[in-house]
Amino acid sequence: MTREEAVAIAHSGPEVIVKALLHQSARIDELERKVALLTTDSSNSSKPPSSDGPQTKLRPRPPKKSKKRNRGGQPGHKGANRDLISMDQVDDIIPLFPDVCDNCGAALDPSVDQPTGKYLRHQVVDIPEPKPEVVEYHRMCIRCACGRDNWGKLPPEARSGIGPRLTAVLAHLSGLHRVTRRGCQEIAKTIFRIDVCLGSVCKLHQEVSEALAKAYEEVRQALPGQPVLNGDETGWKTLGLTRWLWVLVTPTIAFYHVAESRGAKVLRYILGDFYNGVLCSDMYSAYKAFHKGIRQFCWAHIIRGLRGLKHACRSPDAVRFSKWMLSETGRMFALWHAFKDGHLDRQILVQKSVPIRSRMSRCLQLYSNSSDYHVAKAAKSLLKHWDGLFTFLEHEGVEPTNNAAERAIRPAVQWLKISFGNQSAEGELLTARLLTVERSCILQRKNPFQFLVDAVTAYRKGAPSPSLVSVSC
Q1: 427-447 exposure pattern, b = at least 16 Cβ within 10 A, e = fewer
Q2: Tens digits of per-residue pLDDT, 153-206?
Q3: What backbone phi and psi angles, to 5 degrees, belong to 168?
Q4: What is the residue extent of each domain of the chain?
């Protein structure tokens, strides 16, 4: 505003002045909000922790109980040592006899002095020097009476020049440890002393993808029958184009799927037209459009939203509303942790949560009419989703947060940052199948590498592939 404009407003009467002041105040509030949004981090928004810059303030550490306490293990703390391997699995035993007496210094000779038969065990664990195991097949020739030369046929598992264990190693390095294709090639050469060209690494990965196809499809078919599912999605890339990586998680299986859409049709493809269990997720609209049944919304997202509201808004209502809701949320989670620790049963948990939920409802109803647009919007949103806020209190196996799905999707995000996504539809399938198998094996406490070895071996022999849903899911 120029000086001339300000003078014109000053001589235009009280109403014009008040209107101009209110307009400027609204512009200042909006500017302050935009500045606050630029300083948000993972603690008060849905931004991932990896996006927090160096300017983000570190979370304060609790004060030390005593200034005299040193770092590391304290006196009386029982150390964590590796368990000794059983004697029947030890490859070599080397007896060590003392040379001199620790007391008088006299020389000791086991052939002269009498050994007591007692000993202390000490083990050194190492790996043998990597040496490729090479099996050569001689395809012998027999000439038939008709004059035709007939050659011996290779067994199905030997048709590839790379065995199933090395094939599984290369896939395991990519799927769980996010090693690039060139990294796999380098590891094969420097550690295992096997020259594998880059094209062969890609071809072997594709074979692993085909070997895991049946196990992957079995997991997808098992999902609609699960009583509780946690779901999440994140951005993905294929040839630079936008894709979405979806994940659905249970206590024993994790299913990944790369899709072009972020809409509800992806959930219908995975779960069918209806799902009868409890669906846990954030408040993204696609989940609501698909599932009309019981929901549980993620309280971690809600808490970050309340903190962000307090951080970004400058109105008194924003501060009071956020403090009230965060205080009641803290009380609710104190009850939940007491229940998880076994100090409360579920009936008492539900009873003690009634006054907390009542106060939350009163807070939301009061501030749904707030003059602060953002406060009113947040209050109305929580009231709208009220039925899905406290499902975890009454249903077994339901958690108040969506951490299970977020933990499952984190390795995929790290993989994306290294690989920049996929380069083909076949690559999308490989990503989804490898992540599904690796994560599901970890949830079931299976060895994911051994599962890959078994799957590749079965695929080459034409035998039934191993399953991830043979246990109770």
Answers
A1: bbbbbbbbbbbbbbbebbeee
A2: 988 888 888 999 999 999 999 998 999 999 999 999 999 999 999 999 999 999
A3: -70, -35
A4: 299-393
Give the sign of the dihedral formed by CA 383, CA 386, CA 388, CA 391: positive
Strands 254-259 and 278-281: what pairing?
unpaired
| DSSP strand pairing (295-297 vs 241-249) | unpaired
**Global pTM?**
0.81
Strand partners, 236: 243
Distance between CA 179 and CA 186 in Å, rounded?
10
Instruction: Please list, residue by residue across 277-296, b when 16 or more beta carbons sit within 10 angstroms of its beta carbon and e when fewer do.
Output: bbbbbbbeebbbebbeebbb
Going by C-alpha positions, the residue among 236, 414, 378 that lies closest to residue 301 is: 378
Q: How many CB atoms lie within 10 A of CB 261?
A: 13
Query: In this predicted model, what pLDDT tens digit does every residue of 367-416 receive, in sequence order?
Result: 999 988 889 999 999 999 999 999 999 999 999 999 999 999 999 998 99
Binned at pLDDT 50, 70 and 90, residue 48 comes out as: low
The 3-class SS string of 328-340 reads HHHHHHHHHHHHH
As a whole number of angstroms, the distance between CA 412 and CA 406 comes to 10
CA atoms within 13 A on the CB side of 412: 32
Give the pLDDT band (50/70/90) at residue 150.
very high
